[in-house]
Amino acid sequence: MNKILIYALLLWVGVFEGLAQDSLKTTLKTFRPEEQHGISYQLVGQILSSYHYRKVEINDQLSSKILDNYLENLDPSKVYFLAEDIQKFEAWRNQFDDDLQQGNVSKAFDIYNIYQQRMYDRIQYTFDLLRRDIDFSIMDSFLINRENAKWISTYKEYDELWQKKTKSEALQLKADGKSFEVWSDILRKRYYNLLKQLAKTKNEDVFSYFVNSITEIADPHTNYFSPRAAEDFTTSMSLSLEGIGATLQTESEYTKVREVVKGGPADRSKQIKANDKIVAVGQGKDGEMINVLDWRIDDVVSLIRGKKGTIVRLEIISVDAVGNQTKIVEIVRDKIVLEDQAAKGSIKEINFNGVKQKVGVIVLPTFYLDVAAMQRGDKNFKSTSRDVKKLILELKAQGAKSMVIDLRNNGGGSLQEAIDLTGLFINKGPVVQVKDHFGAIEIDEDRDESITWEGPMCVLVNRFSASASEIFAAAIQDYDRGLVIGEKTFGKGTVQNMWDLNQFVKLGTLKVGQLKYTMAKFYRISGGSTQFKGVIPDIEFPGMYSDKMFGEEASEFSLPYDEIQKASYTVQGNAKAKLATLKSMHENRMALSKNYQFLLEDIEFASANRKQNYFTLNEEVYKAEIAKNEAKKKEREKAKEALKGKEEDGNLILDEAIYLLLSNTAQ
Asked: Domain for residue 315, yes or no?
C-alpha cells in the first residue's frame, strides 16, 4: 500500500478515536438513583409478592437470583466484568431482598457504574488492537458460548480474550472479501457507535435494566416499562416495529426477532424468521450499515421504523446460520393493516385412492378482533371467528368435504376469538379454564348451539403456535373433533395485566412507569395447563428447534405445568378412533418421503451447528468451512428442485395432514 495512504489512514484513525475519547470524557458519568426509583422498586416488590400468579417470596433465595440474573443480563458472555468485580458483588448476595423492601437501589447503580467503566476500557483496547496487524494464519479458536465460562481473573487473560474476540469479528468480515481498510473501518465504527450508546444511557435506563432482572424471575412475561417506554403504549406493549412487521426483544448483546407479523413486509420478504439476530441497520439501498450490538431496543426501533415505501437493510445472523455468519436483507417498509393478518381460505384438490377429493384449507395468522370498529357499531367489523365462518361457508359451497385449520406460527391474540372459533366446530360447551392468582377458577364457554362445520377436520401447529392457538387446538383435541398434527407448541399458557404505577404514587410531575405482570393461568377443559407443556400433537413431526431453545422451556423462570380438576364436557367427535392405524401409515409414508429425509437432515445440521462452541481464528480453515457448507446448501437446493412435482408441492406437513385427514374418513 502507498506509504502516504497508510499515513493518512492512521492519522484518520487517530482523529476518529480521539473524537470518541473526547466525547466520552464528558459523558462517562456516575449513575445514581433518582427520587422515584426507590418508591417504584418497593411497588414492584409488593405487586410481585401479592398479586403475581407465582406470589414471589422476598427472601435471601430471591436476593441471590437477583444478583445472578442482573449480572447475566449485563454481561451474558462474561467479557466485561472481572473476577475481582464479582468478588465485590458477592458481599451483597443476600442483601437485595432487604433492599427491595426498603426501596434501596444503590447497589444496582454501583454494579452498573463498574460495568460501564469496564466496557469503556475494553472499547479503547479494541481501538488499540485495530491499529495493529492481525495474523489470521495462526491455528487458534475463540469460545463462542461463554455461558459456563469462568470470570476472567487476570488482565493478561482479559487482553487475550479481547484479542480473540476482535480477531473473530475481523475474520468474518475479511473472509467476505473485505480489505483491511474496509473491515477495520467497520469494526472501528461498530465500537464507536457502542460508545455513543453508552453515552446516551440515563439513570432511568439503569433502573429499568435492574428491575427487569427481577421481574423476569417471577416469569418471562412480567416486565417493567419505564415512563419513556410507557408513553408509547403500542410500542411498549409489543415492541412492534412499524414499517417491517416484526416484534423484537433484547437477548444478550443482540436485538432478536421475536415474531414476524403474518402478511407484513418482513414476512413477505421470506428472508426474516423468528429468532434471527440483527447485527446492523442501514437506510436505503446504499446507506451506511450501523452496527447495533449492545444497543437499547428503543434506539434499534428508531432506526428500523420509517415511512411506507422506503427501504431498510438489516444485517442479520439467521437462526439457522453456520456460526455467526451474517447476511444483508433488504425490506421495503409498509403499513401493517388488519387485512394482511386476516384468515385466508383455499381449496386443495387431491387425487386420493383414485378419487378426486376437495379439502378446504384455512390459514389463520393470528386471533384478531377490530375492537375499535366493533365499539363504534360497525356491523362489518373484522374478527377471526366471523371471517372463518364466512370462509367455511364459501369452501362448503365449493365442494369441500374436509377442513384443515392451519395455526402454524400463530402467536395468539384475542382469547374471546379463540373461544368463538372453537364454537364453530362444537355444539356449545366449555373451551378453556382460567385460574387467577387467588386460586379462583373461571370456565369460559361457547354458548352457541349452532355448528358451522360438522365434517372431518384437523389442526396444524408448530413450535411458534402459542397462547390462543394452543387454547383452540387443545379444545379441538379434548372434544375429539379433529386431529392435531405438527410440532409441539410454544407452551404460553399465562394471562398478563398492566398496572400504571403512577396511580399508587404522587410525586408531582415525576412518573414511575408501568408493570405488566402475570396474574392468571390457562387450563384445558381436560384439566392440564397449556403452560410450559404446550399442546402435544396427535401425530407429531420433529421440530427444527429444541425445546430448550424456544418456547416456555427456554426460560429457567417459566411457570411450571400443573393440572386442575377437569371441566364437565361431552366428547363430540371420534377423530382419534383410528389413531394407531394412522400413526403406522404416517411412519411408513415418512420412511419413503424424500422431503421428510430433507427435514431430518436439516434438523441434524442445525443441531450440529448449535453445538459448535468454538469459532476458528484461522482464515484458511474458516473459508474451507464456509465453502463446504455453501456447497452442501447448493446440493440440497438442487435435490429439492428435482423433487418438485413428485411429492405434492413440498409443503410436507400440510400434504401429510391432508392425506391423514382423508385416510381417517375413508371407509
From this structure: yes
Q: How many CB atoms lie within 10 A of CB 587?
A: 10
- pLDDT at 452 > cutoff 70: yes
Do 187 and 272 reside in the same domain of the chain? no
Whether the predicted model's global pTM rises above the 0.85 cut: yes
- Residue 226 annotated in active site: no
CATH of the domain at 298: 2.30.42.10
Active-site residue, 492 included: yes
pLDDT digits (tens, 9 = 90+) for 228-258: 777 654 343 333 445 788 878 777 778 888 7
The domain tally of the chain equals: 4
* Catalytic hit among 492, 511, 521, 533: 492
Q: Cell triple for residue 284?
A: 436505503
Residue 161 sits in the same domain as residue 15:
yes
Residue 306 CB-density burial (10 A; 0-12 exposed, 13-18 middle, 19+ buried): middle
240 annotated active-site: no
Phi, then psi, of 261 in degrees rounded to 5: -70, 125
Tell me: do 237 and 210 sit in the same domain: no
Annotated active-site residue in 334, 387, 478, 538: 478
Range from 332-336, 582-586, 598-602, 641-645 that averages highest in pLDDT: 582-586
**Cβ within 8 Å of residue 453, ≥6 positions away:** 392, 396, 403, 424, 425
pLDDT, tens digit, 9 for 90 and up, residues 457-481: 999 999 999 999 999 999 999 999 9
Please give the pLDDT value at position 19: 45
Catalytic residue among 236, 467, 558, 593: 467
Domain span holding position 201: 3-223
Q: Are residues 211 and 273 in the same domain?
A: no
